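Render this sequence as a predicted structure.
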Amino acid sequence: MDNKPRMTAAQRRLLFGAVFLMATSSIGPAFLTQTTVFTQQFMASFAFAIVASIVIDIGAQLNIWRVLSVSGKRGQDVANEVFPGLGSFVAVLIIIGGFAFNIGNVAGAGLGFNAIFGWDVRIGAAITGVIAIIIFLIKNGRAVMDIVTQVLGVLMIGIVTYVMIISEPPVGEAAKRAVLPEEPLTMLLPIITLVGGTVGGYITFAGAHRLIEAGMTGEKNLRFVSHSANWGILTTGVMRVLLFMAVLGVLTQGAVLSEENPPASVFEFALGDIGMKIFGVVLLAAALSSVIGAAFTSASFMRSFNKVFDRYNNIVIVVFIATSTLIFLFVGRPVTLLILAGSFNGLILPITLGAILLASRKKSIVGNYHHPTWMIVFGVIAVIVTLIAGFMSLQGLADLWNG
C-alpha cells in the first residue's frame, strides 16, 4: 500500500508552474535563434554542444533548486552568507543579465509578430510587453503565470515535435557527432552561448525562486523540489533535442535560411506557406513565457536590496518589462541581441553556481542536510566548463557584435 501523500491540485499546479517557468525561460526565443544559427554553421556537430548544455544543466539545476529550497532563502541571500557582499554582486549581475535577456525576449516576440502578420518587429515587441504587464497587474497573477507558462510550453513542444518528424533529420550522424564533433574547439562559443540561453543568469533560479515564494522549503519538501527539478531538466532537454533535429533535418534537405529571421525559415521550408505563421505562434509563445520568467525572477533578486522592492514586487516587475521593451525599441538588431544575451548570461553562471556549491557545505545555511556528492561533482564540472569557455568566447562575442 502506498502511504506517500498525494499532491493537492494546488501543489500540482505549483509543481508544473515551476517546471514550465524554468523550462519556457530556457527554451525561449533566444534558444530558438541560437540553435538555428549555430546548427546552420556546424550542422550535425552542433549535437555536441546540445549534449554539453544538458550535462551542465543537470549540474546547475539540481544543485541550485535543492540547496535554495533546503535553506529557504533566495540565491542572493545564500550567496551573501557564503561571502558578505557576494550575493549583492550576484544580484546586480543577474538583474543586468535579465535585462539583456529580456531585451532579446521582446525582440523575439517582434520577430514572431513579423512572421505572422508582417508587422514591424518593434510593434510586435511593444504589444508583447503590454500583454506581459497585464498578466502581473491582474488579481491572482501568480496563478495566471503558472497556467500561461504551462499552456505555452506544451504548445511549443507539440509544434516542434511535428516539424522534427516531417523534416526527417539524419539521426545517426547527429548521434555520432554528439560525441565526436568536427573541430571540437570551435564549439566553445556555441556551448557558452547555449548554456547562457538555457541555464545562465536568472534562468537557473526561476523555478527555485517560484517554489520558495510559495513556501515549498526545508527538507520536508525536498522530494517535491527534486521532482520539479527533474521534470524541468527533462522538459528542456527534450525541447533542445527536438528543435536541433528539426533544424538539422531541413538544412540537410537543402534549405537556405533567411539572415533576418533564420528560425522562421526552418518552419517555412518544412510546412510550406503556413509554416511562417506557425513559427510565429511558436516564437510568440516562447517570447511571452520568457518575458514572464525573466521579469519574475530578475525582480525576485531585487527583494533583498530594500523592503520597498519586496512590498511592491509586482510594480517592480512591470517597470522591468516596460524598461527592457523600451530599450529594444531604440536599439534594434534582434538576432544579434538574442545571441549576445545568452552569451552574457553564460558568463554569469560560474559565479552563481560556485556560490551555491560552497553554500551546500555550510551548516549555517543548510543545517544538517547532506548534499549528495555526485551533485557537487556535476556542479563543479559545470563551473569549470563554463568558466573556461566563457573566457575563450569573449573574443568571439566582440567579433559578433562588431561584425
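Summary. The mean pLDDT is 82. The chain has one domain: 9-402.
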